[in-house]
Amino acid sequence: MQGPAGLDHTVEHTTVDVPIPLTVGEYQLVQRWVDDDPVTYSYEDDRIEDGRHRLWLTRPYTQGSPVPMVSSNLHQLRSCLVNDPPGMRESGIERLEEAERWWSSEAADQHRRENMRHRRMLAMAYLALTDPTPIPRRWLKEYAGDERATLAALGELHQAGRTDRTLLQDELCWAWRYCPDGRGIGRDVAISMFRTLADGDGFTVAGQPAHRPERPLQLWRGATAINRTGVSWTSNPEIAQHFAHTRQSPGQVGHVWTAHIPPGRMLAYLPDEHEFIVDLAGMESLVHEAPAAQSRKISWSTRRAVKRLTRVAAKRRR
Q1: How far apart are CA 77 and CA 85, in angstroms?
Q2: What percent of the chain has pLDDT over 70?
């Protein structure tokens, strides 16, 4: 995660009509007016606020290319991060929250997607200005930028100590579903997040606390040999076959793997794909390639446990 210095590299673009070229004398005069401030703009009304003279000076060199600019609110936040005088930090947070509210309003509809980078910089500024406490859900959305990046963003924030159980209850299971097998985050980070969600050594169903199965369950996983001990397993061997044969990277050959997972190694159950999140660290020897005949059978104990967990999830949804 970038620190305060990240604010120095914010770049946004807009079309600006620059007056006639300057003469040599005018160019030298304007040079004396320009200090170190960047070209700044107001996103609320698409208006250049400062730096018109700098635009004049850069015109001979840009040849029609975009000129780097910074939003006025981000430019003002630099002093909050760098100088940090008394009261400046609180003022900066208020300014950020004003900006976040504007981006959530109807007025921002036509600009919201085009300014995704700017909104992510606001979220990074919020992280830099606040204590290392869990980030509010609305700022997670801005930090991720794109819904498909939510899981990776959660992983980054979790490692930085900026998530808690409440945030993970709201976002983790949904984000995991749209990022198969936690791609984009490491296994240890995924396990840590699901353990936090389960409040340590507990177990969850669809993100909510629940009793874990009482006995080992035979589960399956579709993966390459190198990824056979990942965290994502299923009670349905047909789903494992689907992942093995159609969800691998080009040129990668997947297989169906099976293991009898001890109850204490199961962290969560996600009903949508009959998926169990498990921690096999130190127990890799449990995993074996499934024989073709066995990969079509679900054991009685596994079938019964999954039915019970599915009923638990249905009750919680009601």
Answers
A1: 12
A2: 81
Mapping DSSP to helix (H, G, I), strand (E, B) and coil, where does residue 241 land? helix
Report pLDDT for 162: 95
User: What is the radius of gyration, based on Cα positions, of the chain?
Assistant: 26
Our CA angle for 24, 28, 33, nearest 5°, is 145
Our CA angle for 171, 176, 180, nearest 5°, is 165
Q: Tell me which of 287 and 78 has the higher pLDDT.
A: 287
* Residue 44 CB coordination number (10 Å): 16
List all residues 6 or more positions away from 114 whose beta carbon is below 8 Å from its beta carbon: none
d(CA 261, CA 234) in angstroms, rounded, equals 11
Give the pLDDT mean for 63-75: 74
* pLDDT tens sequence across 110-124: 777 778 888 888 899
Separation of alpha carbons 62 and 60, rounded Å:
6
| Paired strand residues for 219 | 259
Judge whether residue 1 has pLDDT over 60: no
Conformational region of residue 106, where left means phi above 0, alpha means psi within -120 to 50, and beta covers everything else: alpha
User: Structure pTM?
Assistant: 0.77
Report CA-CA distances (Å) from 71 to 36, 207, 305. 15, 38, 55
Torsion on CA atoms 120, 123, 127, 130, rounded to nearest 10:
160
When pLDDT is averaged across residues 281-310 and rounded to a whole number, the result is 80
